[in-house]
């Protein structure tokens, strides 16, 4: 069997696939944030973070549905978990800014702080394989 095909299709690599998609979404989030900070330095940091979050959200949902879990998921549930994650993200961002971290460092720390919680909730609630309404 082709090792790449085995790696992509094997259920035991689901957590890895989750982090691949999450990493892509994180890169999108950070790239959009950096672009917005560069192009619109007057834009409030929370607006930058929110716009970046929304941009990465759709990529993340579709990536998890078609690559990570390979089953239909609930967009509404995923959005609610993502909003909770974004709320936690902003708490971490606020703490980073309170400690006077540079804006991009504070966003980086905030973006990397929630993925494990998101994986667990996604696996047991959003993409669980049965009725996802």
Automatic annotation (TrEMBL):
It is found in: Membrane. Keywords: Membrane, Transmembrane, Transmembrane helix. InterPro entries: GtrA_CellWall_Glycosyl, GtrA_DPMS_TM. Residues 17-127 form the GtrA/DPMS transmembrane domain. The chain crosses the membrane at residues 15-39, 45-63, 75-99, 105-126. It is a multi-pass membrane protein. It comes from the Bacteria. Pfam families: GtrA_DPMS_TM. Belongs to the GtrA family. This is GtrA family protein.
């Amino acid at each position: 069997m082709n090792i790449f095909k085995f790696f992509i299709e094997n259920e035991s690599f689901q957590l890895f696939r989750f982090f691949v998609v999450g990493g892509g979404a994180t890169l999108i989030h950070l790239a959009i944030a950096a672009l917005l900070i560069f192009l619109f330095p007057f834009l409030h940091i929370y607006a930058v973070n929110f716009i970046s979050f929304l941009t990465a959200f759709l990529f993340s949902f579709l990536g998890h549905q078609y690559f990570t879990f390979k089953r239909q998921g609930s967009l509404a549930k995923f959005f609610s978990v993502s909003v909770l994650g974004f709320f936690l993200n902003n708490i971490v961002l606020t703490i980073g800014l309170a400690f006077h971290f540079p804006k991009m460092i504070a966003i980086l720390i905030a973006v990397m702080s929630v993925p494990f919680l998101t994986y667990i909730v996604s696996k047991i609630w959003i993409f669980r394989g049965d009725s996802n309404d």
